[in-house]
Amino acid sequence: MPSIYQLKPAFQAWLRPIVGRLAGAGITANQVTLAAMALSLAAGLALTIWPQHNWPLWLVPLVLFVRMALNAIDGMLAREHDMQSRLGAILNELGDVFSDTALYLPFALVAPLSPAAVVLVVILAAISEMTGVLGQALGGPRRYDGPMGKSDRAALFGTLALWVAIAGQPAWLLNMALIIACILLTWTIINRARGALAD
Question: Where do the domains of the chain lie?
Answer without folding.
Answer: 4-198
